[in-house]
Amino acid sequence: MLRCDTWILFCLMISGTIRLNCTCSEHALHQALFKDYNKLLRPVKNQSTTTFLKSNTDVYSIVSVNEQEESIDLVLWDVQTWQDEFLQWNPTDFDNCTSLYVPASEIWQPDYVVLNLLNSEPLISDSAFYVRIESNGLVAFGQTYYATLRCDMDITAFPFDTQTCPILGMLWLYDSKQINLTLSDEKQNLSTVRTDSAEFERVSFEGHELFFFDQIQNKTYSELRYDLKLRRLPEYYIYVLVVPSFLLTSLCIIGIFTPNSNTGDRNEKMTLGLTTLLSMAVILNITADAMPKSAKGLPLLGYYVLYEIGMCSLATILSTVIMFTHERATTQDWDPPAFIHWIANLKTPCQYFKNAMVSTKSEEPPLFDQQNELKLDMQKKDSENKKVWSIGLDRVDTTLLILLLISNCILTAVMLF
């Protein structure tokens, strides 16, 4: 009976010892570490020792891009690690505790700032931020926040533009001899963006280590630069602005310069040209609202819409000139000049003058009454002149139609491709 009780007692002692060895004494470890800890000073025992701060910034989401204010809204995730010489312990002294989680407000933190940060909102409260401390003194601190960053926009190629938005991080107080800021990723080709914007797609996101020398203080500061390169998706602007502008301008040109037109038909074409200009003005208003404003000049889309309006205006002006010339020529019995005869009959001016001289020399004395003959000749000449004017101006319409349509197609193709 005694041997049985002794065996039971021995088993309980062994099981209790194993249970105690497997339990991490976090409270005792916390009290031992923070008993004389000063979070206001850099955590090195020798002030000449350099603290290496490794930082990594990931873009979780691209919320929006504001070209008008030249800013970008992102959801960022920052992870920073450094060595704290006062937060080291032997795990065997504290029941094999290899790590400890404490609020971030209890330890020293580097004064890491983002220089081009306009506004930031943490997604969780400051009291909920915790850091992980390893037994060798390695501290890992991560935080996620909503950030509005300054980003200089170059919109001269809008809507086919590519923007590069930097994230500039540095230490506000410590120079590179005290704290050296480095990238956590040795390849400096950081993780991809998890959520792209509806208007932009990510091209690349890379980090670089830089050094800045302050001549006033004669100190060198370390910096990190993350470049987020974005490409705009132009499909919306192509289908909503470019294609309607191209079609309206083409219809305007076709409607105005369709051949076989008389003066009354030309008046209707003038109405078509003015209506098209009004429609283009509406498109220009929509384009002006959609385009970002910049002091660097008018965007590419703005030049394109202005060109389309200018082409419609030119077509209307040329149609007005042709209509005025045609009306004056038919009402005042103008003789068609040599180039109109050449256009109408496809003869050179030399051939025209040669035929006119031959017809003059080959005239024979009239057999009938000279007055009736002269009247018939005048009527025949007027009829022939009107026919020449009509055919010549119709061919001018056809030539202008082809030239303007080709110019419009070439410009649109150059812009799109």
TrEMBL record:
The chain crosses the membrane at residues 236-258, 270-288, 300-324, 398-416. It comes from Plectus sambesii. Residues 241-351 form the Neurotransmitter-gated ion-channel transmembrane domain. Residues 1-19 form the signal peptide. This is Uncharacterized protein. GO terms for molecular function: extracellular ligand-gated monoatomic ion channel activity; transmembrane signaling receptor activity. It is a multi-pass membrane protein. Residues 27-233 form the Neurotransmitter-gated ion-channel ligand-binding domain. Keywords: Ion channel, Ion transport, Membrane, Signal, Transmembrane, Transmembrane helix, Transport. InterPro entries: Neur_chan_lig-bd, Neur_chan_lig-bd_sf, Neur_channel, Neuro-gated_channel_TM_sf, Neuro_actylchol_rec, Neurotrans-gated_channel_TM, Neurotransmitter_ion_chnl_CS. It is found in: Membrane. GO terms for cellular component: membrane. It comes from the Eukaryota. Its main location: membrane. Belongs to the ligand-gated ion channel (TC 1.A.9) family.
